[in-house]
Batch of 2 targets.
Target 1
Amino acid sequence: MSAQAGNIVYLGPPGWTREQAIIESQRLGFDEPLWLGRRGYGVGWVAQNRSTAPAKADARALWQSGNGVFLPGLVASGLTAQQANIVAAQRLVERILEGEGGADLLDEEPYATRLTPQFELLASTCDEGDDQEIETLEFDVLANGNIVAENLWVKLSWLSYDEDDASLRFRFSFGMVGYEDVAEDYQRQHYAAQLTEAVFPESYIISANPEVERILCATLAIKAPAYVERIVYFNAPNGGAQFHQDVERGHLGVIFAQVYGRTSWLAVPKPSLIEEIQRYLARPDAHAGLIEAGVKPRGLKTLLDKAANRDSLSAYLDDHQNDPLDILLNRVPVFAQQLIEARYGYMLEPGDVILLPQQGIGHCCWHSVFCMDDYIGEALSFAVRERP
Ligand SMILES: [Fe+2]
């Protein structure tokens, strides 16, 4: 099996000062040290290592084993032509953060011209029961003045409940969330993809890129990719995503491309994540680390019981009621350090891509994301399926 090729080097713990991190970084021959953290959780100081894209056969092996496939610079050549659109997206997000409504903003140029005549904005709603939702915009799709598809939507949501984290996302899909089998309706998936391109034309750096298509065909062993269930992320300072997977019927995995700013990732195949959890729990300082991060003694016992057995730990990972494990994954810096030292840490700059295989609940790439800048970045996250 080819080794995963993380490009982050761990320098030192969160208690270090920047000066200490600089000394260590220089000693190891790296550039400036970078702070890795999210919403009050400090992982520590890291440095970016050089990396190259895996060879074709290695990329295929990484994908099959559920590893992230890091492809530095894969979409970099497309960024120059999209510069004006990237700046426009930044401005759009600024205005949303200032409290302006998405419906009014998309009624302005350049959006109005790009949306008409194909997409007709019908309504703007907000689900009061969903604290993370900002606004949902509903669209019909028209061809020659006739409705050809209904109930497409763009959902704007916060990425967390944290007041100090302005990260938000635009998700493009259709139908009833959680009820509809979206994979069954490729036509509407295709329209939702076109809607993404009307609002964020920088999507073309993935969707109109023959090199991306060629690599996906070889890596996923498919004839042609379709990019569906698209999300455009704006990760803000202090923000990012906790460990999760994105397994969904009807798609094979996710392609994520950094457009602006930088993000860091921990991306681990589920079987390896289980091994890493067990390895951490065998450390002499594990119990103290968990208690310090907020795990109660009873929770610690539950975690140790579940982790004694591979299958029960696997099921516990998929359980929504797993607070002690959730804390281990998302609040224990020594565990994150262990993953980085095992080369599961990646840092993406504009133009870099990571592929996240999502074959099934037992075999998929779990991942966690951190914003690396003191400004809001932009990234594209598209599910990949074989084009019907
Ligand atoms: Fe994800």
Target 2
Amino acid sequence: MEENRVVCHCQNIDLKTINEAIATGCKTLEEIQSKTGAGTVCGACVDEINEIIAAKI
Ligand code: FES
């Protein structure tokens, strides 16, 4: 997956930012949301964020 691909369009959060959040200890959707803001507006990206977490942890 492209690191600079935008995952959350509402907050303009790219895959790299989410990967970094996971690398610094985020293990749940809620932790990613509070650290990056991704997934906190329309929710359309939540499934994808969960898939990214599941693939990494
Ligand atoms: S696309 Fe992520 S909250 Fe809307």
